[in-house]
Amino acid sequence: MAKRQNLRIPPPPQTGLSSFNVSDGDLELQSTRGKIVRMLPDAHLVKIGGQSIMDRGKTAVFPLLREITRLRKKYRIIIGTGGGTRSRHAYSVALDLGMPTGIIAKLGESVSRQNARILHMLLASHGGVYVPNDHLEMLPIYLASGSLPILAGMPPYEYWEEPPRVGRIPECRTDAGVYLLAETLGVRSLIFIKDEDGLYTGDPKKGKKVKLIRKISVRKLLALDLEDLIIERSVLKFMADAKHVRRIQIINGLKPGQLGKALRGEPVGTIIYKNESL
Predict the structure, then answer these.
(1) Residue pLDDT, tens place only, 94-104
(2) Among the listed residues 99, 96, 92, 44, the one whose alpha carbon sits nearest the alpha carbon of residue 72
(3) Position 13 in a domain
(4) Which residue from 57, 186, 160, 166 is spatially nearest to 102, judged by alpha carbons?
């Protein structure tokens, strides 16, 4: 009978990962060195507001889409969508029923996805294609083929949404989701399409005497501590640590031609920037 051999499995090679502590302060500083790859440096990410544009129906949506289909012949455009009134209704019902933040975030994501699918259908004949979150790696292929990618703006945190400082409404909603995507992709510009001329010192819809802010840094805007903002406050927090998207622009999508001017780099609407000198 043959003698059984004792097989010795060699230990794995020492890579140093066993002592890799991602909470180490020195390691965090080391990770700031070197250049970060910009995946889509020539693309422009455009966020179409839910309540400000989509909820107004074809009187607001159709002219804007006609402008986008015309501009996409010259610019590489990616569209992100907001949730709007339907998501706010879902938040209200969920809050009344005592739902936690993670469930509320999940509900908001579904409405943003609905708006993305609506735009996909409207733009299908012009190359519009809906891109699920787990297919983001296809974005370069879609753009190279001449397609017009459309994504839901809500970040896919869903059940893992971090608790907000106050209350239960998710702090990271569609503005934040689109910004985080733009930062990851390293896009050339990020434009928020709203129904106002930009950022005001108050809410112009309430009839108060307010002033339009044409250009302002994140630091100064946070210091103003305005009661009403046209953009989610979490976006300003993210911009303070931005590596790529250090400048965002807010324009009025109800005024024809503003998107084209913004894509050309003209100072329309409001520009918010990270550095003190733009």
Answers:
(1) 999 999 999 99
(2) 44
(3) no
(4) 160
Q: Which residues pair with 149 in a beta bridge?
A: 129
- What does pTM read for this prediction? 0.89
Positive or negative, the Cα torsion across 201, 203, 208, 212?
positive
The closest alpha carbon to 174, from 95, 120, 234, 254, belongs to: 234
Q: Give, to the nearest 10 degrees, the angle between helix 101-123 and helix 174-185.
A: 70
Assign residue 195 the CATH number of its domain: 3.40.1160.10
pLDDT tier, 1 (very low <50, low <70, confident <90, very high otherwise): low
Tell whether the model's pLDDT for residue 276 goes beyond 90.
no
- Judged by DSSP in three states, 273 sits in strand
What is the span of the domain harbouring residue 54?
A: 38-273
Number of domains in the chain: 1
- Please name the residues in contact with 86: beta carbons below 8 A apart, sequence gap of 6 or more: 50, 55, 111, 114
pLDDT band at 17 (very low <50, low <70, confident <90, very high): very low
H-run or E-run covering 261: helix 258-263
Q: What is the pLDDT of residue 102?
A: 95
Closest alpha carbon to 201 in 218, 213, 185:
213
